[in-house]
Design goal:
4 strands, two-stranded antiparallel ribbon, mainly alpha
């Protein structure tokens, strides 16, 4: 089924040979040999999962907008559809855009309500000002790598039964990386801060930022539970530990970067 642009490249179904169990049931997460059976040129029948007896992937009949709404609502089946049954090889583009968005907010002091860190130079020099944006970008790239690395390490230490190879043939570190990027999509909600920054109080902006970060954490817990196949309580513990340790190390990195401002 072809989906409309511009999201077609992100949500196309994976292509596998018949008989290969590299698709995943979006309800129980177990590998399935296929998602649908083509009865005629215009009729498709969704295959039921052998374990849970539910349709393996109902989203192959849905429009992109419905999938996006379920993603916003933190639906586990929607996450499984995107991560396991769709071609998400271009997710790195979304991750790059999000890092640049956060770096821009940081560079323009939009996050001043919750942090005292700033890379904006007080000297009226366009070259120094541009350098501050690059330092902000390095700050968030380091933060992303630290968060991903600590989530992976804590998962291996506290949940040793993580799959080495997932249902679609990709390694666990690869799928976890895609999951962290997908969880970050909620950070697009930082855009209103850029638009209405001049008309908002620091308290209002701080509340907005905290709510977006809380949504990001909840989304990351949900996705970690899907990718690692573990309980939400354990995923919550792993993610919170990773955030705490990441914040400690990122503070050290920020101190080093501020010396270049």
């Amino acid at each position: 089924m072809k989906l409309s642009l511009p999201l077609q490249g992100y949500f196309d179904l994976l292509k596998h040979q018949p008989g290969e169990k590299k698709f995943v049931c979006i309800n129980c997460g177990r590998p399935v040999s296929g998602l649908y059976r083509q009865i005629s040129t215009t009729v498709l029948k969704i295959i039921d999962c052998e374990k849970c007896k539910k349709p393996a992937d109902k989203y192959i009949e849905f429009e992109v907008l419905i999938i996006l709404i379920d993603l916003i609502l933190l639906s586990k089946p929607a996450y499984r559809h995107i991560l396991y049954n769709s071609d998400c090889r271009n997710l790195w583009k979304i991750g790059t855009i999000l890092i640049l968005l956060e770096a821009y907010c940081f560079w323009t002091d939009a996050f001043r309500g919750i942090t005292s860190i700033s890379y904006r130079s007080h000297v009226n020099d366009p070259f120094l000002s541009e350098k501050g944006f690059y330092l902000s970008t390095v700050h968030f790239v380091a933060g992303f790598l630290l968060l991903y690395g600590f989530i992976y390490l804590f998962t291996r230490a506290m949940h040793r039964s993580v799959p080495q190879i997932t249902g679609n043939g990709k390694t666990y570190p690869h799928m976890l990386l895609h999951g962290v990027i997908l969880a970050s999509i909620g950070k697009f909600l930082f855009i209103p801060i850029i638009i209405w920054k001049e008309n908002a109080t620091e308290t209002g902006m701080a509340i907005h930022i905290v709510l977006v970060l809380m949504y990001f954490v909840i989304s990351l817990v949900q996705i970690h539970s899907v990718v690692s196949d573990c309980a939400r309580s354990r995923s919550c513990l792993i993610v919170m530990l990773a955030f705490i340790v990441k914040a400690y190390f990122l503070t050290r990195v920020s101190g080093l970067l501020q010396e270049f401002v």
